[in-house]
Specification:
The chain is of the alpha+beta class and 208 residues long. Helix content is 30%, strand content 26%. A hairpin with a 4-residue loop joins strand 2 and strand 3.
Length: 208
């Protein structure tokens, strides 16, 4: 078994609260004869995420490093509260602006996202890098139709016309095997859950 990168794990404890926090990056198995690309599509280097508390800064993520090669799937595995979501939010630059500090390097095709302004990140999110949240209903705006939420990124990032974006949105809904895609575009997230998917599975597919 050949590993491009070994496991990088840490366990940082908040002494004042007695709460154990850890972050774990799991190495991935490589197929025989396949080397490590010196230019991974995503490279996390020494990522730290700290939350402000009355007792001082609490490290929720402490020095996590791993690479994601193009076309690969890498899993972050750990118990609840170990820092998986905090790491992902830091990569996306979606952590709260106050009371949270992220440092290290997050290289997307060699560009350090932690050094980018919010305006620059808005051009990258949803176009070059995206995140599917654990709870899909929190990712969809309940006051906007599904159609508007699907077509807006296509217009903003791919410079499509509204007609082109709507046609592409219908194609995308068909790709994830949603029935009546034209009707779905006119509906709101809450209506989708009530009428079609009480478990929220359809909302997962909208987010995809």
């Amino acid at each position: 078994m050949d590993y491009c990168q070994g496991a990088d794990s840490s366990d940082s404890r908040a002494r004042s609260s007695g709460m154990a926090l850890a972050s774990v990056a799991i190495p991935f198995e490589r197929k025989p004869g396949r080397g490590c690309d010196p230019n991974p599509v995503l490279s996390i280097q020494g990522l730290q995420v700290m939350f402000a508390s009355r007792a001082g800064l609490v490290k929720a993520v402490d020095g996590v490093s791993f690479d994601v090669q193009r076309g690969e799937v890498v899993a972050l595995v750990g118990e609840s509260g170990c820092g998986k979501s905090a790491s992902s939010l830091a990569v996306m630059r979606l952590l709260p602006k106050r009371g949270v500090r992220a440092q290290g390097r997050v290289l997307l095709d060699g560009r350090d996202l932690l050094s980018y302004s919010e305006r620059e990140m808005q051009r990258i999110r949803g176009h070059q890098i995206s995140m599917i949240f654990q709870e899909p209903m929190t990712s969809l705006n309940p006051t906007l139709t599904i159609g508007l939420q699907l077509t807006e990124p296509l217009v903003a990032h791919l410079r499509m016309s509204k007609r082109e974006a709507r046609k592409r949105a219908v194609e995308l809904l068909k790709d994830v095997q949603l029935t009546e895609p034209e009707l779905r575009l006119k509906q709101y997230p809450a209506r989708i859950v009530r009428r079609h998917a009480p478990t929220g599975n359809d909302c997962d597919r909208y987010c995809l």
